[in-house]
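can u pls check wat happens w/ iron/sulfur cluster
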Amino acid sequence: MIQKEVLEEKMADYRQAGAAPQSEPERQYYFMARAKELVADMEEKLGRKPTCCVVTFGCQMNARDSEKLLGILTEVGFADNGEDEKSDFVIFNTCTVRDNADQRVYGRLGILNGYKKKNPAMKIGLCGCMMQEQGVVEKLQKSYRFVNLIFGTHNIFKFAELLVTMLESDDMIIDIWKDTNEIVEDLPIVRKYKFKSGTNIMFGCNNFCSYCIVPYVRGRERSREPKDIIREIEMLVKDGVIEIMLLGQNVNSYGKNLEHPVSFAQLLTEVEKIKGLERIRFMTSHPKDLSDELIEVMKHSKKICRHLHLPLQSGSTRILKAMNRHYTKEQYVDLALKIRREIPDIAITTDIIVGFPGETKEDVEETIDVIKKVQFENAFTFIYSKRTGTPAAAMENQVPEAEVKENFNKVLKTVQETARSRVGNLLGQTVTVLVEEKNEQDDSLVTGRMSNNTIVHFPGGEDLIGTLVNVHLDECHGFYYTGKIQ
Ligand code: 5AD
Ligand code: SF4
């Protein structure tokens, strides 16, 4: 992240100097300046500012990446209009964690092609995890010729340069890297929310859970330097942010590969010291790496939110082994209960996969048993999706669809029942809530989030957005509450 004035000065300097510098991020400042000239030409021809739209699929990492794309697009002169139908440049930032994510992108691309037929000058870009998946680029080259730009997860920092190439060419521009060690700092970002922000603390994943495509599309684990993270959060706080979400595929292994190793708990201790920052969240924790040091830091922290997302995936030790998760059912339950004991007001949420190859009714019963023992406040339950190239995809004992559906419904029902009683525990209490937005359905209400991540709807005006208020919890509706400001 970089301040706007500093960026503009640097852009002008590098452009004036002539040839593109080799070092980053200077090279991108040069290309931003060039893109700015090209976009200004477009503006003159159109008689209005060219418009853009970044559509995000998938997780918080992608949402953060989209903010980086939008940061560059608005810096070079595009107006963000948020509507793909009417934009001059549309980017889909894709996800590929499950097959239905891919199908959604292909579906939306078909619709976009219809818009492009009406507006042939429209440019279409694709990036994100799906572009790194085997066979996808070939399919796009063959059947989706109307796409103008394709790039992946490792070279997103090069977006300004790719944008210039695209604007100067009529060919389909494709740039996919297999991997990278590079972490480029100080590029512009446009944030969706003024008062809260995500920040990447690490990229990639080394765990190779046998069902998961992420290590193949996001590459090996790389941590950012603590000083860069702290500097970014300090700038965000100066800019109005009071809640930060530290992002990584497995934050508990943060810092292990740095030149001077730092633990995640140590990083949190440093982030806690930032004045003006009120709340700290993080995502995601792998149970195998969750340390006592982290529990200790969370327990004594005034800023770390009372929420832990701790993916279970399966409650069966046999399946966990086949998933390459490196913990048993008992170890998971012991860990979750230890956390509940040490930090009684914490909410624990999880991810569960149903239908992993070889999963029997007994295995599903083990998962249900863990849900009952841990009493998750919420659980995201997924049907196993076969991802080409992962070890699980080659396993022979895939479970028939009808059986998976039946097991899935059973797991979902248990989650709903336990969550309802667990979330309801706070009924009648007054809690601090960060007001995030106007309620989508009812204009007289606003929606906020408690420290433990539970949503509360209550009467209030837009002026409250971005502030912390005390709310009395009147009624629990399963996963959320309604209440009144105190
Ligand atoms: N099928 C179904 N769910 C998956 N996840 C990851 N890979 C798969 C897959 N192949 C789920 C895991 C992970 C979450 C982000 O997505 O539960 O925690
Ligand atoms: Fe995928 Fe496992 Fe890495 Fe999470 S920890 S991204 S599930 S491989």
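The CA atoms of residues 438 and 446 lie 4 Å apart.
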